[in-house]
## 1
Amino acid sequence: MKTEKEIIKELKTKWKINPFDFWIPLSGVTEENTCYFDSFEFNEKFGFDKLNRIYNNLKTGGIYEFTYPKETKVIDELNIVDFSENDTFYIDENVSFVIYYTHQRTIAFAGIELINKIKEEWAEFEKFINPWERDNSIDIEFELEKRIPIWNSISEFYLDTELQDENYESITAIFLNSDLHISELKEIDLYEVFPVLKGNLMSVAGEWSGFDKKWLNESCTKAYLKRKNNLFRWKTKLYNRFLYSMRKDHWTEIENRMKMHYNK
């Protein structure tokens, strides 16, 4: 049986996947022999029971299950019933077939044989494939409107001032109201806010009273529209490697407050 490191290395080489990060459609673009579906539509119109049967018939050896943030185990059979609260990858030992099930109501696949088997048994396959790429699937204006209070809240992490308890309470309330997972909020920070405001972290005398909201929202919108560009993502991650420590404590504080809310 292959080690976890061997599987991760093959995943990155063969499918450009890091099993502890996002994949399509949350990150990156669909490439040859990959696709995704709305998980609710997939289960209703096709069925997880059929998927489990197809995958178990195709796979070789054990199934490597990688669950966010960093939990790994090997299982004998695929038995997807419902979402388990954390994004999860399922990979066979030959790394030929990949399933990625997420909190954003998506389920993605890699592997031509797996995809073809699903297609053979699902007459409406083409109707439901890659839903985020349908012309009427996402109302971008509505999506951007939802992000404005999130951008404004995250921007406080970049001010040259010390946040107080009331600031954290306000930010936490907005994050909770968004119904977004903490991992997705961090992704919004990384690819939509950080590229715009990283300069304030490096400035000797940075902005401390607050950023112009019109400018901030216009700039974050531009970053949002570029967020799936591979070069943009690579450059952003490179800068973030050196600057994340300057806002890490803010995220720790927010994460703890959100956990307290859910544990009430």
Note: The mean pLDDT is 91.
## 2
Amino acid sequence: MRKLMMILASLTITATTATTVVACNNGTKENKVNVKDKYQVIPTVKNIKAAIQKDGVNPDDVDIDIQPGMKSAIIRYMPNTPNLPFLTKKIALDWATTDINQMLKILSVPYSKDDLGENVKPETALAIINILNGTQFTLDQVDVVVDNDSHIITLTPKAGSGLTGNAVTIDGQPITFNDIFQETNLGTIYIDKDLYDEYMSNPSSKILFMAAAIMEFGGDRNRFPAYYKSTMANAMISAIRSAKVNIDPNTKKGTFSMETKVDGVIAQSGFTFNFTVDTNPRTYLTENNTKPTSDQAIDVNLPGTYTEQNLDQLRYDLAKQLLGENFANKYKDIFYDEIWVLTFDANTKKAVLTPKPGSKIFEISDKTASSLTGIPYYTLNVTFGG
């Protein structure tokens, strides 16, 4: 059972920081979306979503990728959104305040030795703080001091960063699932048709399998658990027998809910994910959309030359060669989030890439969860420049 729970806990990802070329806003009067080029807001995901909602955007339909330093952000639509006004749009951010205390609202990074180790690095602490608060501070902007005895973290604005205010103290107290899973409306998620049919015919025998499939998408939109896999495994162990999956067979709209606690990390609380199931196969990132075998490593040769600075071009060229120019052009603006570059070496001219679990456009599953979801995990071993 614990092995299965560890699989569920692994269904989370870390945020990417690569930049991308973004499309222009081509919203129409029909969908009444009129996103501005610049917003004056406190630079957090929550505040940006509130601002663009006033301009016609349904906040459940988009993810917000604030760029490091928080001077700009990318609005990234779910690609299956009806009447899609645009796929991505980059907006400038004019800070409504420079006070760091007004930007940070969740002032706890719960300490877990199993997850974070004996000594928490400043960059790890800052990454978790950014995820919880929907910010994107950098180490060039703030001094981060971690006291690994008291588990107190202190953030102090650096001179010349544009930030003001007193130092912020972050404690190590437990947080709730409301803090962890801030995005609970997952939109349309892909479930393997065989798994879906088996679950609908006998729900009690397949709830663990459905939980694994749903958590891939929950982990994509909420990236805090990537740093707390052991904690999430313990949470699933204690709650799986009372966890509930409900799906309407007519509309395929469903919910997944659970409630539990993990001492020292997660206070007694619960969450409910809302979603709509899609069983129509998505596209494999393989030549001509050929289904790969489980854990297959696929060799690909690309003629282009790439550096750490143009990895988006590598992503685009890979998709173009495997799936054609039309597909690559349609989704190129979200490849930075949809395709992971696992390793890259400009000297040997080799890279390993894979679509992310919970992808909006590709069919793939997490390596450890593949046996539960019925969807293969695979990688692309790319040799380039020759």
Note: The CA atoms of residues 53 and 286 lie 37 Å apart.
## 3
Amino acid sequence: MKKISGVIFDMDGLIFDTEAVYSKNNIEIAQKFKMPGYDEEYYKSEVGLGEKAVYQKYVNDFPMLRQDEIDQFFKESRASTWEEFSTVGAPIKPGVEELLTYLNNHGVKCVVASSNNREAIDMLLDKAGFMDKFSGIVSGNDVTHAKPHPEIVEKAVEILGIPKEETIMLEDSLNGIRASFTANVPVIMVPDLILPNDEAKEKTLTIKDSLYDVLDYIKSV
């Protein structure tokens, strides 16, 4: 890339170390509902999906549960995580503050594009003091199709108002990478729970171990 004028940030697993908390709480509550096979590997299969897609995945994968039981699992697992985040916030991923400070100081516009709901995004960004670091937010509430569909990336590009060839997206999930790739926006993977596979390597601009490495990459462009 010759120039980077805009950066699209995923949130869960990229800005905040939330995926590990979601995974832990979901696994604990899944045991209560006797959901066979709901372990860390299963949780990874839903990373990056929107809430509607995750709900339908539960319906398909756990046919032994009644719909009201799935509804209750969905409600309790989200409520447990929400209570934790609303009380203490979420751990910030290493390098986030340094990267945002550099981008803001150099006039690079930043947008959040997350499949999470807007209320959760606002709460987490506000608690971390990051709200004023971003020019806009696209949430799962703002799109008809969540990742891996490219709609959320396309909307983020509209907010940035910057050519795609001058934009990069930062992602930790394969579904997010697919969304960015389909939208023709160069994407950098910063792995969290999910390690890069051949598809991730093929569809990304590069893969970096941390946001500190992303910052070094951007400085070198």
Note: The longest helix spans residues 67-88.
## 4
Amino acid sequence: MPDTAPDTPSAHTPDATPDAPGQQATDTAPFTPSAPAPGLTPDAPGGHATVLSGAARLAAVGRVRLVRRRGRARVAVVTGGLLLVVLAAFCLSLATGDISVPLADVLATLVGGGDPGTRFVVIELRLPRALLAILVGVCFGLSGAVFQALLRNPLASPDVIGVSSGASAFAVLAGLFLGVGGLSLSAVVLGGAVLTGAAIYLLAWRQGVTGYRLVLVGIGVGTGLSSIVSYTMTRSDVTEAQNAFLWLTGSLNGRSWPNFWPLLTSAAVLLPLTFAAARALPALQLGDETAGGLGTRVERSRLALLACATALAGVATASAGPVAFVAFVSAPIARRLVPGRGPALLPSAVTGAAVVLLADYAAQRVLPGTQLPVGVVTSVVGAPYLLWLLARANRAGRGG
């Protein structure tokens, strides 16, 4: 038997270097782990790393949901607080005046009790005025919030861009020259506001409508319509001109149930339509191109919102006159109370109700024995805010 083993290739250990020429180094090179995939930890199997990535995504989603819940909770708390302010002002309006009525008697009268004198004071004199103030404030506040959010301009409110001026011009022309009154005059005022809004929209159209151009066109149109009002007043009888001037200031004096029911009917139609149309508002605030990319019909949605906001301002003007600055200041107040929550339509509407109700309460009592128009008080509040806004814009280099 041969003493030597068969001539077979010798086995090499992993650390050995092959002797044969042409042997590939990879056969004997030490094993090196490959670099981990992006998003995976190098010392964890791939399955566990995927679980960690999913947990991170869930944590991010949870944080977003928490922020949204906190935002909705803040909106609810602020809206509830504003409603309490409205309720307190409402009770004060019914209980105080030339004849003071205890709050318990006011509540008893509202549920059908009370003596005839108390019922007449509370139900016939004070209740329709207070309810009308609330509805007028809601309509003006919501209208201003829609205009400012849609046009992305703090000056965009119906009393600044000419809508209220159009309603006033039609009212003065119809009332002083044609002798129109009552519900017919209210219809003329609403029609004037809508026609003025349509004219401003068409004049501002250049392959679309931008907020800055619409505001400038509206200011110009409003100035022209105000000159028509001034000319009409100079050509009228002194007594008629005095009554027209009182209405143009914005007043709730002498308002009763016949003035309340048409506004309630109009608001019952317009408020749901406005909130329904406002579902497209968050997308429109991102810009026309982005909103179109998200599937929003930009011009159709913008036109629907402008029509609703104009109609709201028109019906409020028809009921109480062009109460100045309510639409202008309500939305900024609401947005400061709920920052980062978009247009804040509902808080703006409630803020408008509180502003008008408190202003009317002050107008009845600031001068003993004299009832001022509510528009005087709102102008005292709104005019300084407008000046401050313009001064801030100039300091920031945006004032022109």
Note: Confidence is low (pLDDT under 50) at residues 1-52.
